[in-house]
Design goal:
Layout (H helix, E strand, L loop, with lengths): L1 H14 L8 H11 L6 H12 L4 H22 L9 E2 L2 E2 L1 H5 L1 H22 L5 H15 L4 H11 L7 H26 L4 H30 L3 H22 L8 H12 L3
Antiparallel strand pairs: 1-2
Helix pairs in contact: 1-4, 2-6, 3-4, 3-9, 4-6, 4-9, 7-9, 8-9, 9-10, 10-11, 10-12, 11-12
The structure holds geranylgeranyl diphosphate.
Length: about 270
């Protein structure tokens, strides 16, 4: 994981450079958030899936970069005053606090656009149909049945009485699990995995996506609640069950699934 994280940092650093003075500001703003030190879980999932199916790491690098660009742009927009209105992200000022709402919105838009262009421009060594499918998977993960749709339902459910379990699960599936699913499936598709393999990857990713959110809620409770033991204990059992289900979906791959199994454990054991 650490090797893949370091590789991801290098790829991200190389992926965005200003080539003319007129783009210095927007690129600076994009690079500020892209290189602000996240856990890089989505690129790791993409690399681990591609390697599980015998694919080449090189062929998956542009998709891994694109996944982190999409994730980063969603965080920039999520932090805006019109959404969560956060001043800090990963302990640093948020993009709009430093660059203003106008530049932050456009930096997010440019990063989303660049994510697709990057995959189309940089992917080498795999048939074009796989690249097109990857672009489709990425697009799906962002749209109405993806991050944007999940965020809208989340925003509109806030403060509402009686938000049901179904709604909550829908929000987490699209706001969080959709991009994790895209990460695993992009890696699998680039390696030439079969439809059955891809379906197993989807099951794995949806389960870890929900577990991810349960783990986030536990971290929130741990940092804020007085009734820590009770709530966290029950949620930990739910998260563990989701991770066990995720791992079961990859049972046919034996040892080759080890990195994805490890990532599933990491998702609920992480402290940030
Ligand atoms: C995608 C067009 C488009 C717009 C964005 C704002 C928005 C729509 C969606 C919100 C998406 C969002 C913030 C989802 C939460 C996802 C999540 C679990 C974030 C935390 O991920 P980590 O823990 O973060 O991987 P690090 O900091 O490690 O990168």
């Amino acid at each position: 994981m650490e090797e893949k994280r370091v590789l991801t940092e290098q790829l991200l650093d190389a992926s965005l450079k200003s080539t003319v003075p007129q783009t210095d500001l927007i690129i600076e703003s994009m690079r500020y958030s892209l290189l602000a030190g996240g856990k890089r879980v989505r690129p790791m999932l993409c690399f681990a899936a591609t390697e599980m199916f015998g694919g080449s790491l090189d062929a998956a690098k542009p998709a891994a970069v694109a996944l982190e660009m999409i994730h980063t742009m969603s965080l920039i927009h999520d932090d805006l005053p019109a959404m969560d209105n956060d001043d800090l992200r990963r302990g640093k000022p948020t993009n709009h606090v430093l660059y203003g709402d106008d530049v932050a919105i456009l930096a997010g838009d440019a990063m989303l656009s660049e994510s697709f262009a990057h995959v189309a421009r940089e992917t080498r060594g795999v048939p074009a149909e796989r690249v097109v499918r990857v672009l489709g998977i990425l697009g799906d993960s962002v749209g109405a049945l993806g991050l944007a749709g999940g965020q809208v339902l989340d925003l509109k459910s806030e403060g509402q009485p009686n938000v049901g379990m179904d709604t909550l699960q829908w929000i987490h599936t699209y706001k969080t699990a959709a991009l994790l699913k895209a990460a695993v499936c992009c890696g699998a598709v680039l390696a030439g995995a079969s439809e059955e393999d891809i379906a197993r990857c989807e099951t794995y990713a949806l389960k870890i996506g929900l577990a991810f959110q349960v783990a986030d809620d536990i971290l929130d409770v741990e940092s804020s609640s007085a009734e820590l033991g009770k709530t966290a204990g029950k949620d930990e059992a739910i998260a563990r069950e989701l991770v066990d289900d995720a791992k079961a979906a990859l049972a046919p791959y034996g040892e080759r699934a080890a990195p994805l199994l490890g990532l599933a454990d990491y998702i609920i054991a992480r402290k940030s």
